[in-house]
Amino acid sequence: MNMNYGMYSSQSIKASLNMKSALLKTLLTLSVLFPSYALAAVPSISSIAEQSVNKGQTFSFTPRLTSGSNSDVNWSIAYGPDAVQISQGSGTISWDVSSSLPSESFYIGVQASNADGADIEYFIVHVGVPEVVHVGPSYDIKTLGPALRANHPAGTTFVVENGVYSTQESKIGLRGDGVVQMPPGGNSSAYSTVMAQTPGGVEFNNEAKIAIEGGTGNPFYLAVKGFFINGPGLTIVGQTCDGDTSCEPHHIKIEANGVNIKDTQGFGVSYASNILFENNYAFGGLRTKFSFYHVDKVIARRNVARFDWVSDSPGPQNTFSFYSTTNAIAQNNIAVDSDSPYFWQPAEDAGEFGCPVTSGGSQVQFVRNIQLNSAKIWGNMDSQGSNACVADLNNNISWDVRPYAAHIAARGGVDIDHMTIGQIEMLQPDTWLVNGFPQNSRGFRNSIIHDANTTNLFYDFALGITNAILGRTYSRTGIHNINISSTSASINENDGSGNSIDTDSITRLNPIYSLANPQGSLKYILRSEDNTNMSNLDDSNEALGATVTTLKGATGSMWGEGQYNTETGRPAWPFPLQDVIKTRMAQMNYSGAFYAGDGPNKVQVGTAHLSGQRGFATSGKDLTYYVWGYLGNAVPPMNVSAQTDGTDTIVRWDPPASAYKSVITGYKVYDFNPDTKALSNPREVASNQVSLTVENSG
Question: How far does CA 205 lie from the centroid of its chain?
Fold first, then answer.
């Protein structure tokens, strides 16, 4: 897909890269509108056939440009396993495949960009796969069903040709007539994979759906990748096993799939274990988008969801729901543009991120998740009798939100650390931003609260040791190291002792960067800038607030596998698969019930139309620039790279999304001294260029 770019705007922004003896930093400089320039050759990458490699070998492939030139192209990996690398100049892709990697088939996305635009090409690499079966109109096997009904070895990959499939002949699971269509069960050395030719390229609708059930085939060590399900949903269900855990689905990877939810199912898992949901996207109707019910060892990583509409789906409304689910992690997920509450039938708002416990306790880590432009609460971390949600919130963001009830219901054993909360407009009077009732919350610290329009900030926090929560007790540290600004809300902990808030550690600084407040830390909601007013204020002498600039958890890793919950160091931006996600979300069109009022007081007043083309899914925008640019400041250049020939170095970066080009006259590239952090020797780069050759820098 080619993306044409026009003009760009910015304020001082830095992106650094290591050089041989120094660092170079590219800086964009705030200026005035520059004239439009003629588009030249937007890069276009030739289609790449499926590739194969054995475990323990090195995969290498050089893509070919059909337009554009290697001399001015910035190559990058847009999608794929963490170990995949790319060379500037040639664009050669390389991957040292571990000998211990289970057999599986993977997507790799390669991007070529220049000043005029960019192109991403996705292709498949089969790693140690014993058999590859192709289905679709161009092949002898026209639909998936006959291929799945045949005998194939564990670790087989089934590739479905791009197109639209609508009948039960393409269903994965148990058909209505009792016919089983499942891939062969895999094992710890080989995942059986069913995947679309390219991510989002295969659409399932009507009777074509994905419904994996315990007792139907062998739902173990499977991977399902790249499908767009327009209505029917994608589910993994173990209730059919009647408590026989040996029958329940386990070790299943759901990757790069999308669901436009209508009135049946979205993404749902129940009574299963060792489940990975990675880089999926959900939008449309129903009261939950991602639902995990009685699941153990589940990771939801880098998924995107938008809560659009709910009709004829009674019950609490959740975007990501970890319901009576244990050993769960939510990493780098984004709930975005859930801004259509008058299309939601009246019901309890259980939040964008929540963990109900009416059927048993939950244990969840919420790490580096983002809620942006929403009418939903952040989440309900529930407590019901002896059941509670023990939740750890670390480096999460909630910005520009208009919730009805308490924004964070921290009712279980909840610990909140390094959170950035801003522009919160509470619709229900006399409520709390963070409700700690009934004093189970372990603490709230090292965070930023800005522009929270509510009556009270905190309720029912306490110090000391908790009562038993899911069989153990926890230390409660109260509320400390918080910066609170631009709010008239009172601090109310209501614990009877009056000492759960360390008032000496509460600061009242304006964290928002502007020309009038250059010490403000927040140019972007994603981080606090170095050496600004939020620096050195947390309990480790680091910055307050969330940092969501890199990815947590190795790509493709399941619970307990190496680096499944560690820092990868890989940039989180550009957000993986954002081109496919935007395209599919923008296509949504819904007409249905329209409500007036707020919260549970809504009443239907007629019908209306809701478009998917809103927020980030509009012309000239993408998810990365939408999130980074939300405070109105220019976005740092993405995919900054360097190529040296031993003498000179070429520095390159990607062009911005077109909606964010408006007032830049050019770029500057400086020498950077990593010891003194001093900048020197500025070099001018024209506004219509995205590269610079630095002579004698090798």
Answer: 25
